[in-house]
Amino acid sequence: MNNERWTHSNTTIFNIAYHIIWCPKYRRKVLVNEVEDKLKTLLVEKAKKIGCEISIQEVMPDHVHIFIKAKPTLAPHYIVQQLKGYTSRILRKEFPKLKSRIPTLWTRSYYCESIGHISEETVKKYINDQKNV
To answer: What angle do CA 119, 125, 128 make, to 5 degrees?
Structure first.
């Protein structure tokens, strides 16, 4: 994927992006210093492996924000599952202190919003106006 507005595959032209947020268990402020740096690297690495591109990310001490571009074949839940599972496994192995502070690194929940260049109202108007063309 790249920074162009649309991505092309053999059968599809698409522009799919999500703003995703998730937190460590109990919203503990554990995403600092070396953990933060390693997490950022791991997120980009795993996103690339599953065919996504992280446009921007910000790791706060108690939550993660990513803006990620995805293929239409990847459900948001799958993307989050892959990112959280991969990062949890490696971070807990590399930083054993994380195991003692919280039972699991991430909460089960997350926030996800689809992001596009066209508003919901514009799409509704476009669809409603199709018969009037």
So the answer is: 145
Mean pLDDT split into 10-residue runs, the chain, 133 residues: 72 93 98 98 99 96 96 97 99 96 96 86 83 68
Q: What angle do CA 81, 46, 80 make, to 5 degrees?
A: 20
Which structural domains are found in the chain, ordered by start? 7-132 (3.30.70.1290)
CA triple 58-102-32, angle to 5 deg? 30
Determine the pLDDT at residue 126. 81
Tokens representing residue 129 in the block: 């106006």
Q: List residues with catalytic annotation.
A: 126
